[in-house]
Amino acid sequence: MKRQVRVGMVGYKFMGKAHSHAYRDLPFFFEPEAVPVLQAVAGRDRDGVEAAANQLGWASTETDWRRLIERDDIDLIDIVTPNHLHAEIAIAAAEAGKHILCEKPLALTVAEARRMARAAEQAGTVHMVCHNYRFAPAVQFAKKLIDDGRLGRIYHIRAQYLQDWIMDPNFPLVWRQRKEVTGSGALGDIGAHILDLARFLVGEFTAVTGMMETFIKERPQAEDDVRGEVDVDDATAFLARFENGAMGVFEATRFAGGNRNGNRFEINGEKGSIRWDLENMNNLEVYLEEDEKGMQGFRTIHCTEEVHPYAGAYWPPGHIIGYEHTFINLFSELMKGIAKGYSPSPNFADGLRNQMVLEGVERSAQSGGWIEISED
Amino acid sequence: MKRQVRVGMVGYKFMGKAHSHAYRDLPFFFEPEAVPVLQAVAGRDRDGVEAAANQLGWASTETDWRRLIERDDIDLIDIVTPNHLHAEIAIAAAEAGKHILCEKPLALTVAEARRMARAAEQAGTVHMVCHNYRFAPAVQFAKKLIDDGRLGRIYHIRAQYLQDWIMDPNFPLVWRQRKEVTGSGALGDIGAHILDLARFLVGEFTAVTGMMETFIKERPQAEDDVRGEVDVDDATAFLARFENGAMGVFEATRFAGGNRNGNRFEINGEKGSIRWDLENMNNLEVYLEEDEKGMQGFRTIHCTEEVHPYAGAYWPPGHIIGYEHTFINLFSELMKGIAKGYSPSPNFADGLRNQMVLEGVERSAQSGGWIEISED
Amino acid sequence: MKRQVRVGMVGYKFMGKAHSHAYRDLPFFFEPEAVPVLQAVAGRDRDGVEAAANQLGWASTETDWRRLIERDDIDLIDIVTPNHLHAEIAIAAAEAGKHILCEKPLALTVAEARRMARAAEQAGTVHMVCHNYRFAPAVQFAKKLIDDGRLGRIYHIRAQYLQDWIMDPNFPLVWRQRKEVTGSGALGDIGAHILDLARFLVGEFTAVTGMMETFIKERPQAEDDVRGEVDVDDATAFLARFENGAMGVFEATRFAGGNRNGNRFEINGEKGSIRWDLENMNNLEVYLEEDEKGMQGFRTIHCTEEVHPYAGAYWPPGHIIGYEHTFINLFSELMKGIAKGYSPSPNFADGLRNQMVLEGVERSAQSGGWIEISED
Amino acid sequence: MKRQVRVGMVGYKFMGKAHSHAYRDLPFFFEPEAVPVLQAVAGRDRDGVEAAANQLGWASTETDWRRLIERDDIDLIDIVTPNHLHAEIAIAAAEAGKHILCEKPLALTVAEARRMARAAEQAGTVHMVCHNYRFAPAVQFAKKLIDDGRLGRIYHIRAQYLQDWIMDPNFPLVWRQRKEVTGSGALGDIGAHILDLARFLVGEFTAVTGMMETFIKERPQAEDDVRGEVDVDDATAFLARFENGAMGVFEATRFAGGNRNGNRFEINGEKGSIRWDLENMNNLEVYLEEDEKGMQGFRTIHCTEEVHPYAGAYWPPGHIIGYEHTFINLFSELMKGIAKGYSPSPNFADGLRNQMVLEGVERSAQSGGWIEISED
């Protein structure tokens, strides 16, 4: 009988659905050493959490996340709440000896993130941050190419996360636009993703300088039809330097009309270049300088073959997978970590480092100068 | 308590995996009126079928499909065997009063397909053929545009299903290349899919003329290292006329290097055109003649929004789905049909019609002339 | 002093403009052994031909093409008239010892084309047919790859020439839609181009079967506001077999909305595949089976480098050329042929062979069966 | 008889070829009010300049540009020399009452550019800077859409000019990499182009902050096989703010492998977005928020129709033009300006403004802070 990992999830909206699905599908596609069990889901609204448990397949519910942490029959706490609750829940979970999976960004501040990382480290439990886009087969394959030296020294990364879902001035204030709940706007929500991809593929940031903008400064509030102030960024752009000498150009915005979910990057190295775009996430474009003269050009590699990371778990070549599979792949690593007793990357140390860059960008946008990302 | 539909599946390889997954995921994404239960799976090899049942999540196994049909606790027989078994199993299932889902192509011959359609009709049970590509949101949206008259009178369809998995002459003879098991080669396997898409989007065929080719005429046989004759087509192309006056150009091949699974079509009408490609299956390209002068061009519509058929069941706009979701969508229709007592299209009548075109193409390739597709 | 080739051009509309420009630009980009001189242009309408001569840069005019052929100061007759005049002019030019460049298709019928080819052969002068698309650098590079064996044995060509300029039923009857003037419609006009590309890249046709359609059967006549019958095809599709065993699927239509000038092909061989599209004519997509596993995919090669045929005559890598340059490249071959005394391909023998396929397609469309393309 | 504009061109390499060609082709495609005459070309190397004159079609030569300016039979001085000579020649030309066309960037410094702009203004002659990419039909059409309010308030521009021609460390030091001759590296050479496009399409810059990098700091010197220091940037990136509140993200690099000439931008506005890429320069991608729900997506508009700026001068829809036509279009404006007595944009005032941004970027890269672009 395989080891079971009994999960208690806090929150149940968009990310709760994505996580629930990944737990369910994991044993179908993979043969994990540890098998997740959808033990309990917590949410303040009893009707809401029960409906969610029913639809998403959880065995029981709680209306107080503290109760979830107290339960003996829970091994892993999965945090899919708004950002301002991450720290308190994660630290409590760590102190209770639970493994932890936390949605990104890890925290509201570097200070919080550092406390979380320390708590998890002291607890000695397994911890991960849910930067799922790393786990697209095409991105993992990009990583392999870079690690194998196929691109040589890295000169450039340019990455954009472009969305357009709040461009309508009448789109109401939601929690993702309120600083006390979310920390920052586009930066922390989607900028954190491309920043994680950059850390994964290029390496550590050493300095950043950025700009932030709120194009629509007031919005209707859903509750009571009054208008409220938007105190986070609609868009953020920043320049960066990396330890290995690479230059980075980053942009995260919710005001790029026509880009529903345009998470894309290009990396240029001494020997080759790669491009990726989430909207056609199964493809990786690769240029190799070593190709013979006249035959050089970006290849569109459909990363659905046995040799592409994780792809063999799914369908034959040419049969694409989608958004949800990035979670399944990440969860396969989490289960492996729990079975073997280590915290796979991206873990809380990655989340902390990510937070340091996010905070560096915010500080640079305020000061107008470059901010060093210190070694901690 | 919702109605349950207890499924017995015959076969468990590639299609068995796709179907099993779809049954499992259906209630998660949809709220179906009838809920499938993975009751039993049948296969001749006891070890094989038990391992499959375990991995895919079936409650019990049989080593003889006839036993499956005899069982009282099975409502729906799902046939994912090689093609030559479809008829016998489907007819037996119908006679036993079971609902039936059958993989494509429906049969080896029109005669078989006609017997199957009659048996199902007489039994009065629900029947479908698993032409899953119809159920990509982008294809369903294309159908809606056509039905709404957005393309006007249809002039052209050109459709290709291009693969490359058997180009290596040392790739062994598999059942999909043996006439007695499969009926035809590229034609029946992948040609049947684009033919179904054409019937769905453009309408009924009236006449065809085609050519078939076997480029590699002998291959190693896996079993015993001798070479065997390939007696089906590696590639088939055909011209067609439709009831509504449209012209069709079709090509199905397993010798189109670089096309892992290139199922694509373009349809041109009086008022607009559409293009679709399975490898980026979430996109539909649409051209509208009504767009103002100078602003005309193919739009790339990312069919992941609430308004796109089935898309709302999954993730927010811009988050793509993949191959497996075409099955989930089809199965949602099947469950609706079972709950309400009708056979959603594509059902056995569609499968028969499809078979008539397949056979017409084969006969035209032999005779060198056009074959009328009779009204039956 | 370089040899001069004094050109007399018959006709001066769209093709007259393209040819005039190519003569003018040729010595700028190339260093041709023979230099064209724009000596005289002929047209029936005195005002029209004089205005054209003035705008396009011709030194003198004639209102009767026969007079042009009689002139001693003309070395090369360039025929850009409607198709029904090609034969008479070309034969007269040959008999007068002139070199000849003729627009495509060479003639209205095979019989005409054969007389033209014989006349030119007997005259011993240089002759070419203006199939300009062969001369896009990307197409020439494709030819080189095929000749070098990079694709291996060819299995497939699928080629389409898709336009949409007469879809409006009120678009008037023009000469390109009148059989006595043009021979056929989409087939001879644009089908002839893809047929030439197929002969150039894949080899000789051995048999064809086709279908032709006139979607709009009556149109306004520009002259007198009455409606006239359209007696040529709006669209033609055909299947083909080649001497080397390849299969071909072809389609030429003026009813493919959104395709302004969509001349595109894909060729699949044993070792690789290529794709080309006139609308982005500087690119060639190449797939090589020899690429390492996991790294296979179509490369987009921007054929603007020194190593790409003709590209070095123009601009640095990445600076694209356009439609008009295909003529300049062809004309560079014509001048080389005249300087050295041979008729570069595509010459009248190619034009005849092309005509045989065109006529084969028409006959097959009438008979409903395959037509062999005899060796002559 | 049309007015003639007798041109004297200083320099004759890559840009000299592009300009010469544009002068020659202009009267063929357009009917300009003033017609350029290729009167004289100047260069220090007598053999070189005479060979160029012969190949490019100039009537006479000079070995000293000062002599060219002294000649009475020259109306327009065209400066295609390395950048460090622009100012001296342009000022001398202005003082001699000549019209002036100057390659970009206008000067080495703002101070120089300002002197040039003043000299031209005082002389009252016509002046332009050769920012040719503005004149691609797709870019002009983009401008029209923006001016017509089709994008609404502009939120973002992200523009990249990516090249890869000096990535090989053994590529020798050329003038474009030497500060005293070129001013800056990637920034002034290609960054100046995207900066001009941004000014043209979005408006005036108000502040910038940038970073510059020299990846290969020493290179062989062609002359004498010793290595020399590279004292300009291989790559520059910068953030920007615009008068209208838009955010800009820019990157110019010669180290982006696989990008031969990747000049591309995306602009997002309140009501729509546009994208353009020089490598497929005939296309403009346009997204309109006003499109009906479900039908929204980027359209690929092939800007080759009569309604697209300048396109009508060339070929029918779907027949693409290339790099060289951007010069022809610009030159048509220059001739119009000379005929009517005004300096079309981009003129020296634009060149000055461009230089101010270039210098701002350099200064910000040194200081690490934002630099305001003053109103002058």
Features:
homotetramer, 376 residues, alpha/beta, Rossmann fold, Dihydrodipicolinate Reductase, domain 2, 2 domains, 6-stranded parallel sheet, 10 helices, 17 strands, globular
Question: How would you name the oligomeric state of the polypeptide chains in this document?
Answer: homotetramer
Superfamily (CATH H level) name of the largest domain in chain A: Dihydrodipicolinate Reductase, domain 2
Radius of gyration of chain A over all CA atoms, rounded: 21 Å
Termini separation of chain A:
43 Å
CATH architecture assignment of the largest domain in chain A:
2-Layer Sandwich
Class computed from helices, strands and strand pairing of chain A: alpha/beta
> If helices are DSSP runs of H or I spanning 4 or more residues, what is the number of helices of chain A?
10
What would the principal axes of the Cα set say about the shape of chain A? globular
Instruction: Summarize the helix and strand pattern of chain A as letters.
Output: EHEHEHEHEHEHEHHEEEEEEEEEHHE
Name the helicity range of chain A.
25-40%
Largest interface by Cβ-Cβ < 8 Å: A-D, 42 and 42 residues
CATH topology of the largest domain in chain A: Dihydrodipicolinate Reductase, domain 2
Residue fraction in strands of chain A = 25-35%
Q: Could you give a short account of the major beta sheet of chain A?
A: 9 strands, mixed
Which regions of chain A have little confidence, pLDDT < 50, spanning 5+ residues?
none
**Highest-level CATH class of the largest domain in chain A:** Alpha Beta
How many strand segments of chain A?
17
For the record, the count of structural domains of chain A works out to 2
Please state how the strands of the largest beta sheet of chain A are arranged side by side.
16-15-14-13-7-12-11-8-17
Task: Return the average pLDDT of chain A rounded to an integer.
Answer: 96
GO molecular function (chains A, B, C, D): nucleotide binding; oxidoreductase activity
Domain Gfo/Idh/MocA-like oxidoreductase N-terminal (chains A, B, C, D): 5-129
Domain GFO/IDH/MocA-like oxidoreductase (chains A, B, C, D): 140-275
Keywords (chains A, B, C, D): Oxidoreductase
